[in-house]
Amino acid sequence: MEKQLLDGHVVSKEIRDDLKNRVFKLKEQGITPCLATILVGDNSSSETYVKMKGNACEKIGMKSIRIHLPEQTTTEELLEQIQRLNDDTNVHGILLQHPVPEHIDERLAFETISLEKDVDGVTSAGYGQTALGFGKFPSCTPAAIMEMIHHYQIKVSGKFAVVVGRSPILGKPVSAMLLNEDATVTTCHSYTENLPSILKQADIVIAAVGKPNFIKGEWLKEGVIVLDAGYNKGNVGDVDFDSCYQKASAITPVPGGVGPVTITMLLKQTVIAAEEKLNTMNQIA
Ligand code: NAP
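^ thats the input. predicted complex w/ NAP below
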């Protein structure tokens, strides 16, 4: 059986090359796409993620504003900061790095981000629009998974897709997006019974569990397509790569699969937000 490694770096480079041109054109018209990131507290992995996102912006000519608030920031102070960014006409996308410290009302903070700047797809309105099939900015990992599927021309319509995980930023939205593309979708979670027997029927498996090497090759059927969104300590995915590779016709590696495309989707959605801003300005003028 022919096997295909679904390479996130290839997909990412193609999109970023296109984005560089779009950023250049926007700058010619006086707009520099700008992503504002907010980090609250001193979680070192979160700091690394935020830095990576800011650097990725700069590499394609975008601007990034990094706001780092102290651990003891209150919900009200965070909301004020988000509101300032909502009102700032030079900011096109807002990303609140999560998790935020426990004393902060994270949901309220997400909901305060204005919909047209919600490039990370965290507001309930953004999620609802994605689920209904007309969302502009889905959350970035589901968007990356769909981008990989489209890039490699993987047939989704009529296929049985099993998503393992139902988090609001990953499992749920990607399930809705696959359904919107006419897959038959089953979403599994920690209460799911007989997970291996469900997976055995899957044509497409999306792993979003948060447990290293969790999905085993013996649970899968021959020829399955596996997209692993997992990212665990030691650069390990949620899929047991070696055994799943034996069964799969196409599979994403970790690292180098869904991960690099996720950040690229954040850039892409911020560029789209800036393009929409320009369109609105042109309509008013
Ligand atoms: P999460 O919020 O912890 O959700 C994990 C999901 O897996 C939950 O829905 C949970 O079910 C389910 N689950 C846990 N144990 C299970 C089991 N034994 N059988 C079936 N389902 C089970 O995690 P997340 O934020 O969605 O992230 C998932 C993975 O993606 C992690 O490895 C994370 O590092 C990675 N991730 C990657 C990116 C990227 O850029 N590539 C971005 C975000 C996340 P319940 O709902 O019942 O608890």
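The radius of gyration is 19 Å.
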